[in-house]
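Cross-posting from the chemistry board since nobody answered there.

I work mostly on the small-molecule side, so proteins are not my area. We synthesized zinc ion and want a rough idea of how it might sit in this target. Sequence and SMILES are below. Is it possible to get a predicted 3D structure of the two together?
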Amino acid sequence: MSIVGIDIGGSKTIVGVADENGNLINKKRLATLVNLGREQVIDSVKAAVWGLLSDYHMSSEDIDGIGVCCGGPVDAERGLVLTCPNMPGWDNVALAKIFSEEFNAPAWIDNDATVATLAELMFGAGMNVNNFVYFTVSAGIGGGIVIDRKLYRGSNGNAGEFGHQVVLPDGPPCTCGDRGCLESLSSGSSIAKRARRECFDWPSTVLLHWVDGNPMLITSEHVSRGAAEEDEFSSYIWNQAMNYLGIGVANVVNILNPELVVIGGGVTRAGELLFEPVRRVIEKRALSGLSKIVGVVPAALGDDVAVVGAITLAMERLGLVGEGL
Ligand SMILES: [Zn+2]
């Protein structure tokens, strides 16, 4: 028995095959070449899955189910991507049906942060926790909510959009059309954007040296590395972003009183440089009765969290994991 997981991100896609216990047998990472158009991206994902299968002398008959996830809101019931903020032209795409037909197996779709939460609940940091929240901090910021060991999906499946809480009224514009959302201040792309815009005011910053003077090449990873090396400009940008992230997490702690906050996504590669200020802001800003009992930890599944999440989604729909199991 095997399950296929497909995690389509704005810059990279990860496909994987797992056994019936959710153990990843094989995976492959490919660039999501958004500029080539939707058809081409979907074709390259199909080819990558066929490649994974042939590596293990498997055919589509060996697939019992397929889980797919991507950023942005989805209609899980109808298997549709509603919009993909980082992928223009991906509105109302019947992605579940496309993969179901290609591999002749049932397929389901959900938001990447939602399935990542499911993966941490079943196989990761939330395995022994009743109530926790998951934050993903990468190009955007998303999240998920677990209450009494059940994923809370909301009225139409889109609960946990922690990135779109406003933490700075009249702050920078957000991809959602509002201003001052957490995502517009603390996501990887917003950190990079701000560093690119302001670096010329700090000509001695190590960042300009690392990118040979071309600010367009600055990434959030450069900024965190600069902050680790105590570069003044990098520290200034990074610390502000982490302060807002801490405020966003503290708000959620006050609302939901979780035992644990799990944070995943590319920006968490910065390690304690991210976790330490977030813990500090929670201690300062969340109510003491709530902040005292909450732990803040990295996603146990690391970079694989969303692809394992997609696999977990299919396992849940096939009745292999979930309540009472
Ligand atoms: Zn927003």
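Reply from a structural biologist on the board:
Welcome over. Reading the output above for you: The mean pLDDT is 94. The first strand starts at residue 2 and ends at 8. Happy to explain the token format if needed.
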